[in-house]
Request: fold
Amino acid sequence: MRVTVTVNGERREADDVWEGESLLHVLRERLGLPGSKNACEQGECGSCTVLMDGLPVCACLVAAGQAQDREVRTVEGLAEGADRLAPVQEAFVEAGAVQCGFCTPGLLVAAHDLIRRAGRPSDVEIREALAGNLCRCTGYEKIMEAVRLAAARTASAELSTEDTP
Amino acid sequence: MDFLRPASWAEALAVKAERPDAVPIAGGTDVMVELNFDHRRPPALLDLTRVAELAEWSERDGRVRLGAGVPYARIIAELGDRLPGLATAARTVGSPQIRNRGTVGGNLGAASPAGDAHPVLLATDAVVEVASTRGVRTVPAAEFYRGVKRNALEPDELIAAVHLDVARGPQQFAKVGTRNAMVIAVCAFGLALHPDRRRVGTGIGSAAPTPVRAPAAEDFLSAELTDAGLWASRRPLPDAVRRRFGELVAEAASPIDDVRGSAAYRRHALAVLARRTLGWAWDEYREGGWSACA
Reply:
């Protein structure tokens, strides 16, 4: 079947999609967007996290046909342009919150969504929001640091925008 | 495989009547796992996420009609005050990603004994509304579970909604697992106090072939609370009553040894969960806010 979905603001079409296929497979294998990672394929690890109609979901658990006409945002669509990372991406780099990197795309999407919703989340809120994203390298301290940093920067950037007449 | 995409409830029922072999899919948190791992190759998938009616809830005369497709995240955000037990259970489902997709309808459709919604549905006397082109019927939750991953649905039927009373007393849910998030229950327990009718409701998860109630525990505690005038006096519960309640809950289970835990551990843990949730619920009742009698 053909699946038409808006990915990162662009209307995309995938042909010959098998009816039992996941959105994750469509993104990675048919639309050339391998940022979302394929690991557990059962919603346990969060490495395939994308935003669908604005909500974080595991792309491995969305049937491709369910994404028809929906808006999907992947890790590739977080940055505002080719030369400027999103605040949460910059913070992950600076805080050293990346080791092997496999969990990073999912964590970035989940953290980005959290900061957008919660502004300056507490540590408890960060832990809760990232509870569906597993990292098997680092432990989570650097990731926590990165999210706190990104949230603080986003909040102060918004403040200074408000201050500008 | 066919991918069937009804746009309305009437169309969904018509499609299911024509294709009883089609597997309904909502949040995909069970069905997609089976597909991804090649455990299941149904001739057709019936996508219910475009049926707007399923994603709605409404309240009338002290009853909530919860559409089968309302995701857990919305139960937490929108129904925490009306359905505190179900909302508490919803908070323990998977992860934020899973709660954004998973639904009570899906839990009922899968009918896994470990489904997190079941204990509270049993404890609160929830009623499942199922439908087909032949008509609508209602099935009490206690009669809906028919065996391991089997339910009372006919092949042409779909789950429309769940009906629950707006809480008139404290409700609790607790589950045991290896961590807080992303855990399939080793065992779980739901409790509802119904001061308006001087009854107690229970539900046990993951410790029998199906979710089950603990009728002897319900009768025992209801009688203790009523006979000792505790509904009205709101005095502390004797420890012996809490302990006996826990024992009776554990006796109602018929757990097995499996990878998540042993039968003996499940029994023990259930007694602890029952005692503990009763303590929380009774404390909440004593603090007031809930009227003693309708």
Chain B has twelve helices and 13 strands.
